[in-house]
Amino acid sequence: MRGFTRRAVCAAALGAAFLPGAHAADGMRIGIIGAGHVGTTLGRLWAQAGDHVMLSAKDLSDAQAAASSLGPNASAGTTAQAAAFGDVVVLAVPYGAIPLLGPALNPAVAGKTVLDATNPYPFRDGAIAGVAGRDGAGITTQRYFPSAHVVRAFNSIDMSSVEGQAHRAAPLLAVPVAGDDPASVQTVERLVRDAGFEPVRAGGLRDAMQFQPGHIGFELEDDAVSLRRDLHLNP
To answer: Of the given ranges (25-34, 53-62, 221-230), which has the lowest mean pLDDT?
Structure first.
């Protein structure tokens, strides 16, 4: 996923009307910020489950190309359009884009669930990765989206595993979910199930640090019973 520039995000924030084909009565509406491997993998699973996704990217043509491969439940738009479209807004960008996207999109996500599937890496993301490594990525993302309810999920499992193990035979692969707003956590748990996995509630945003890079829960591929044991969660 190519990086976002301030100019591009600010221009996107002025976005025009939504593209047609994304609005339907059934299924959840999901705006995805990012049309790379993470955004398209999750978008495909949700679209197949009957949810309605709008992919966005720095270059609209990239989002359009990705959306065209996901079937009739997918469309493309600017970042601003995707943020306004979604009942849930998914962050699927390099973590270094968070400080820029937050101020640009925060008004559009007021009161919404923001599913943060990003990970901070110092070699790629600069100083913000150090802050997220110290304070926790969930806590740090919430600072940039103060009007929204941030929930961490889908950041701890490689997307190749997500592609390969969605809807596998029981026991399902477990996905840890952490957030401070109970209703938003429940919403993300539904999306985890829609994608073909079993959600495991792992606490609040501060607890989400345990499944970000450098911590015990990162890249664990377990069923729910094993994941709860490994993260020292109550059964």
So the answer is: 25-34
Give the pTM: 0.89
- Statement: residue 7 has pLDDT above 60: no
**Three-state DSSP class for residue 74:** strand
**pLDDT tens by residue, 73-104:** 999 999 999 999 999 999 999 999 999 999 99
Question: What is the domain count for the chain?
Answer: 1
Q: With respect to residue 235, please indicate whether it lies within any of the assigned structural domains.
A: no
Q: What angle do CA 167, 42, 48 make, to 5 degrees?
A: 60
Count CB neighbours of 180 within 10 A: 18
Retrieve residue 25's tokens.
Answer: 């009565």
Q: How far apart are CA 177 and CA 151, in angstroms?
A: 7
Domain carrying residue 137: 6-230
Residue 103 inside a domain? The answer is yes
In this structure, the dihedral spanned by the alpha carbons of residues 171, 173, 179 and 181, taken in order and rounded to 10 degrees, is -50
CATH number, domain with residue 165: 3.40.50.720
- Asked, for residue 1, whether it belongs to a domain, the answer is no
Residue 146 lies in a domain: yes
Q: How far apart are CA 169 and CA 121, in angstroms?
A: 33
